[in-house]
Q: What sequence folds into this?
DNA sequence: GATCCACCTG
DNA sequence: CAGGTGGATC
């Protein structure tokens, strides 16, 4: 240790690679149980680093204090894995007897609906036992008659964890729609026909001739009659508060897994109440579904300036009631939309957006190329004439992120579209306690800001009546909340922010407002800008630390040997990140700051201060004082 | 409680 | 780059 102390005192002289131990990171075990729910087990999240000198020093210790440091490395516990629970449902599919295709189709529809519901309940990894119905196979002679037996692509894509909306049925398919409609209306019609009698009395009360309709067959409402196909019980959302999931289709579901406890049983006084509740639920769901459908129908009407200003509400293509994904007209490429142009009339970096929006979108909006590319002057110290930003920023994330996928929260993705819209509208309107992200601020609002509100639009948007009927009027309210947040941040803003980073690493809100004055500042916009700079700093410090450690490892003798020139690897990396096109002359001051930062990291690492979790804080404190004023030219990016 | 920040993660 | 989270600060 004495040797180390001496080494520390003269750390610039005798650093050698053998003194540097590889970093030891703790591990976390990610245990995914694919047959059931995903379970992520974080066993050890300690992220301390071992000193490259091999000795963990405490933060703040002076070099003279290093004698008492404990050189013992920090060992980590091994990983532990949880064993997966048995699958919730064992997949079994057995052909049933041939039936007429409408019945099958209705069953398919219902099954798909319930499957979606269950999937939503259980999480994205849930894989229900409902295999594609083999009774729809061509050998029953019906296969060529039915329009669609089962959407294996869509369903299996869902099971593979992919988007739940790709490749599935379209609600616009008239056959499917009719079946769904019949399916949805039947219980209510029966209830009405029966004069309000409990469902168990429907059959004996009904004067209608017996028909083998899906509803006749499936509505047992808790009845466990063996004559009923339990598979239909499963697929019937109206059979009480809970439903049974058959484990074995061949056995026609005699073996069941209780998913949710039913609250009513036949013949009890609760049955009528349960039925009423069911009907109420059904009606509500149906109303929501119709509203969602009408939104999709309305959308094309809200395009006064096609193709540049398409409505940009984030459309979740799933029926609120059925859970069946359906394809909105918006999800299809519009005719006449030029290649490389998004549905919102914005350039998509040469890549194409997926047909259906299934993933979280970037908050950054790609603006259409401006007719007059804005230009900035070089920083005062430069005399090379006018320096222009590129007119577009083709490599920015908009297009690529749209296809990247994976980061979106499945819960959010599967959210009821109407509910999602409503929540965002209300949250944007300042609903108390709502913490909303600013998705609507950029893409959606920009796309929506130009169209006139259809009188029925609010109702179709599922905006609650109390909101719609406020004294200031629904339009003004929405316009003053959603649509008045005119400009979101664009890729040009992002590029500008990156260039500003060459001057300021810690811009305050005043600076941001000054240099992004063309943006309607909201808390979200501010947060987003702050987040940008936070990300910039993160990348910056990571590169600095990496370079510093490399210097230590390479035995760099003293800080004077650490320079950051325009030809250095470090600068190239940074320049590539903040100034990809290299069309901006990076101010000399930035090189100086980078050099100082690098040396700070080098010293800290050399002293072994990096064993302290907060060893970077003193560095941050130093660097934040090195900010420069951003040139005035940066204010003039957006003349409008 | 609000805000800012770093850190981690996808 | 964005979302979530926890700590620090006011």
A:
């Amino acid at each position: 240790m004495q040797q180390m102390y001496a080494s520390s005192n003269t750390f610039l002289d005798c650093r050698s690679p053998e003194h540097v131990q590889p970093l030891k990171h703790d591990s976390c075990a990610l245990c995914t149980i694919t047959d059931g729910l995903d379970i992520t087990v974080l066993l050890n999240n300690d992220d301390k680093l071992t000193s490259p000198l091999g000795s963990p020093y405490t933060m703040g210790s002076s070099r003279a204090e290093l004698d008492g440091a404990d050189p013992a490395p920090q060992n980590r516990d091994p990983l532990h894995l949880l064993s997966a629970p048995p699958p919730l449902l064992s997949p079994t599919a057995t052909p049933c007897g041939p039936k007429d295709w409408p019945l099958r189709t209705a069953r398919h529809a219902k099954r798909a609906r319930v499957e979606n519901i269950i999937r939503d309940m259980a999480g994205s990894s849930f894989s229900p036992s409902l295999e594609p119905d083999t009774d729809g196979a061509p050998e029953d002679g019906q296969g060529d008659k039915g329009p669609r037996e089962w959407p294996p692509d869509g369903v299996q894509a869902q099971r593979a964890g992919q988007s739940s909306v790709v490749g599935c049925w379209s609600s616009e398919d008239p056959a499917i729609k009719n079946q769904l409609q019949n399916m949805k209306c039947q219980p209510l019609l029966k209830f009405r026909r029966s004069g309000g009698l409990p469902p168990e009395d429907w059959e004996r009360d009904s004067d209608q001739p017996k028909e083998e309709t899906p509803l006749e067959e499936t509505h047992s409402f808790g009845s466990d009659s063996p004559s009923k196909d339990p598979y239909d019980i499963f697929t019937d959302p109206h059979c009480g508060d809970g439903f049974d999931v058959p484990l074995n289709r061949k056995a026609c579901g005699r073996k069941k897994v209780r998913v949710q406890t039913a609250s009513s049983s036949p013949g009890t006084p609760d049955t009528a109440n349960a039925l009423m509740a069911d009907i109420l639920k059904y009606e509500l769901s149906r109303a929501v579904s119709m509203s969602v459908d009408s939104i999709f129908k309305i959308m094309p009407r809200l395009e006064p300036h096609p193709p540049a200003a398409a409505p940009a509400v984030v459309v979740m293509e799933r029926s609120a009631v059925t859970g069946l994904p359906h394809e909105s007209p918006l999800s299809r490429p519009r005719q006449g939309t030029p290649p490389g142009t998004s549905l919102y009339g914005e350039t998509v970096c040469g890549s194409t957006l997926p047909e259906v929006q299934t993933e979280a979108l970037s908050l950054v909006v790609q603006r259409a190329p401006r007719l007059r590319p804005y230009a900035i002057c070089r920083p005062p110290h430069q005399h090379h004439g006018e320096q222009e930003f590129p007119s577009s920023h083709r490599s920015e994330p908009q297009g690529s992120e749209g296809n990247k996928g994976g980061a979106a929260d499945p819960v959010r993705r599967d959210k009821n579209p109407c509910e999602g819209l409503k929540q965002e509208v209300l949250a944007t309107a300042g609903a108390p306690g709502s913490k909303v992200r600013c998705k609507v601020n950029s893409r959606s609002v920009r796309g929506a800001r130009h169209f006139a509100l259809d009188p029925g639009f609010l109702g179709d948007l599922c905006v609650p009546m109390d909101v719609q009927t406020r004294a200031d009027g629904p339009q003004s309210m929405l316009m003053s909340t959603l649509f008045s947040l005119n400009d979101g941040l664009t890729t040009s803003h992002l590029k500008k922010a990156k260039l500003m980073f060459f001057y300021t690493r810690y811009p305050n809100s005043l600076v941001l407002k000054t240099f992004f004055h063309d943006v309607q500042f909201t808390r979200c916009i501010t947060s987003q800008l702050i987040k940008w700079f936070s990300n910039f700093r993160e990348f910056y410090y990571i590169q600095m630390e990496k370079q510093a450690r490399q210097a230590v490892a390479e035995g760099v003798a003293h800080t004077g040997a650490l320079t950051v020139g325009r030809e250095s690897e470090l600068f190239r990396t940074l320049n590539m990140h903040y100034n990809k096109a290299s069309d901006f002359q990076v101010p000399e001051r930035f090189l100086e700051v980078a050099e100082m930062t690098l040396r700070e990291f080098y010293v800290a690492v050399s002293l072994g201060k990096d064993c302290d979790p907060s060893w970077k804080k003193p560095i941050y404190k130093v660097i934040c004082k090195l900010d420069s004023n951003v040139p005035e030219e940066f204010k003039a990016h957006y003349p409008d």
In short: The beta strands of chain A are 244-246, 256-258, 375-376, 387-388. Residues 101-270 of chain A form one domain.
